[in-house]
Amino acid sequence: MTASRAALARDSLQLKITSQQVRLGGQEYRVISPAKPLKNGALYKTRSSYDMFVDRADGRRIGALWLLAARSPRSLVYLPTRTDAMELGIDFDREEKPLDLVLAHQAVQFRPSLWKKLRARITAGNAPREVRTASVPERDLPAETREINYAAPSDPAHRNLLQQHVFAETLFLTGSTTAFREAAPHIFTVTKEGPPAAATQLYISGGCNYHVCRSIYLRPDLRAHNAEQFHVEFCPPWSR
User: How far apart are CA 44 and CA 99, in angstroms?
Assistant: First the structure.
């Protein structure tokens, strides 16, 4: 499959963000969020994975934020993605829990247990914030490939596995620059292949024959490393 990079427009890796400086527990944190709410991006914890649903526009914003997290070793990237599944027209066959998402470079060394207090401060109506345009170089987006070789994983030591923690209705993904950059192409590919598939095929959420999705991790032994699959799926109901 060709790289998803080829389908990106010049401004695909630019987005409006808010930047906030918050002091908590003797430390100062910078929090980056999308300037406008994510209308069509949602994250859920299901029985066996974390499932994210996106449309084309917000999926690309989310992908750009992953790349921004890779370039922001002193920042937390906060994505408000808690959405009722009924708003998506999705009928889960199991209990699901909506979650927000925080992408944290490992250099930040942020403790998730502090998040509830920090979130209350940045979401307060009078919280100061700066709106700016963030731009990520296109070269930061690696090529994505479909080839999966479970017998010879590219990262046998799991150095680039994003660490997962859930606290205060939020999934924290923490890792290196490489870890975030290697995950981002899967999100962009979903936004590229989703619209044409939605226009021509029958959509069945969770049905691997009829929906467009990617799993960020290709390892079959995630549970042994206290991690679960992160699954990204295009959501056609939003595109109609």
Answer: 6
Report the alpha-carbon distance of residue 65 to residue 184 in Å, rounded.
9
- Counting Cα atoms < 13 Å in the Cβ hemisphere of 191 gives 26
d(Cα 156, Cα 151) in Å, to the nearest integer? Answer: 10
Residue 66 contacts residue 180 (beta carbons within 8 Å)? yes
Question: 192: which 2 tokens?
Answer: 């590229």
Domain span at residue 132 reads: 4-239
pLDDT band at 13 (very low <50, low <70, confident <90, very high): confident
Neighbours of 15 (CB within 10 A): 20
pLDDT digits (tens, 9 = 90+) for 150-207: 343 455 556 678 889 999 999 999 999 999 998 999 999 999 988 888 777 776 665 5
Domains contained in the chain, number: 1
Strand-pair partners of 31:
20, 76
Q: What are the C-alpha distances in Å from 237 to residues 5, 25, 90, 199?
A: 25, 43, 9, 11
